[in-house]
Write a structure and sequence with these properties.
Elements (H helix, E strand, L loop, with lengths): L2 H19 L5 E5 L1 H17 L5 E5 L5 H7 L4 H4 L4 H11 L6 H4 L7 E6 L7 H14 L6 E6 L16 H5 L1
Parallel strand pairs: 1-2, 2-3, 3-4
Amino acid sequence: PTESGFTTDVLALYDWAKARSGNSSIVFWGHSLGTGIATNVARKLQEERGVQVDAVILESPYTNIREAAAHIPVTKVYRQLPGFEYLILDSLAHANMFFTSDENVKVLSCPLLILHAEDDAVVPVHMGRKLFEVAHNTYKDKSKVKLITFPEELGLGHDYISFNPELPTLVK
């Protein structure tokens, strides 16, 4: 799998869904790694086709893959080793893996909702907050950018925001 391949696949899926959806809204909902893919495709549609998706929802997002790899807890032990940046972080760039949601949201103008749990042990909540700040600072219509964080006591972590019974109401 490659960043380019993921983006191409989701563009094909978007075209397929759009052809069959009539006037229904199409919302991109990305979770974790998928948040980078969702912003890539939304940006590509906007820049290359002049098409704005109806909305983008990012669940447990990161700013870009390099920063995520450098800060996610699972890499903590490796960060101390010599060559971590070269072997891990630079290898992502050499493989053309960037997933720059922080750059992508600067271009978007569709409604953007960021969801993040305070107790996310995979992608720290500070990354979701940072992505929100980037988007909020660049969007002309600030009301289109929202961040919802879920308190630690809910125990939603990285994978269970979708289990929150209030989520449908929050998304609306």
